[in-house]
Amino acid sequence: MTDFEPKIVAFCCNFCAFAAADLAGAMRLQYPPNVRIVRLPCTGKVDALHLLKAFESGADGVFVAGCMEGECHFLEGNLRARKRVAYVKRLIAEVGLEPERVEMFNLSSAMGGRFAEIAEEMTARVKRLGPTVPARRKEAAES
């Protein structure tokens, strides 16, 4: 499984998490290219179905990154997102996937370094868990 490179989808709010990802790039911080960012006006717009659809479309891990708690530009969007992430963790556990594949993080726009750390952390975590799709698990085990 050493050749397995996980696919990770990051749902990021425009004001903080996406700005932090942009800052990480501007700072030329290195982090795995496994993370694909979906830019949202607010993490409050992410629905449980969006997170599940990412897995259905082949993601091995998903994270939601929003504003710091209590500092959401849309007041409570990140609090609603945190509840939805917890709900999805319970759902995927019921179907046999590890709940660690889904996570919620809070960042400010000045935390470019922290965004890079999160990308590293999620990549390492999902790499350790292996692929989500049985066919990809078999493929990774054979290599």
Cross-sheet strand order for the largest sheet: 2-1-3-4
Helical residue percent band: 40-55%
- Give me the count of strands: 4
Structural category is: alpha/beta
Low-pLDDT stretches: none
Q: What number is the mean pLDDT? A: 90
Into which percentage range does the β-strand content fall? 15-25%
**Main sheet: strands, sense, barrel:** 4 strands, parallel
List the helices and strands and how they pair.
Layout: E1 8-13, H1 17-26, E2 35-40, H2 48-56, E3 61-66, H3 77-94, E4 102-106, H4 112-129, H5 134-142
Parallel strand pairs: 1-2, 1-3, 3-4
Give a short summary of the structure:
With 143 residues, the chain is α/β, with parallel strands linked by helices. It is built from 5 helices and 4 strands; from the N terminus they run βαβαβαβαα. Helix content is 45%, strand content 16%.
Keywords:
143 residues, Rossmann fold, four-stranded parallel β-sheet, 4 strands, alpha/beta
What does this structure look like?
With 143 residues, this protein is an alpha/beta fold. It has a single domain, classed as Rossmann fold (3-Layer(aba) Sandwich), CATH 3.40.50. The chain is built from five helices and four strands, in the order βαβαβαβαα. A four-stranded parallel sheet has the order 2-1-3-4, with helices on both faces. β3, α3 and β4 form a beta-alpha-beta unit. α1 (17-26) crosses α4 (112-129). The longest helix has 18 residues, at 77-94. The radius of gyration is 15 Å and the shape is globular. The protein starts with 7 loop residues before the first strand and ends with a helix. The mean pLDDT is 90.
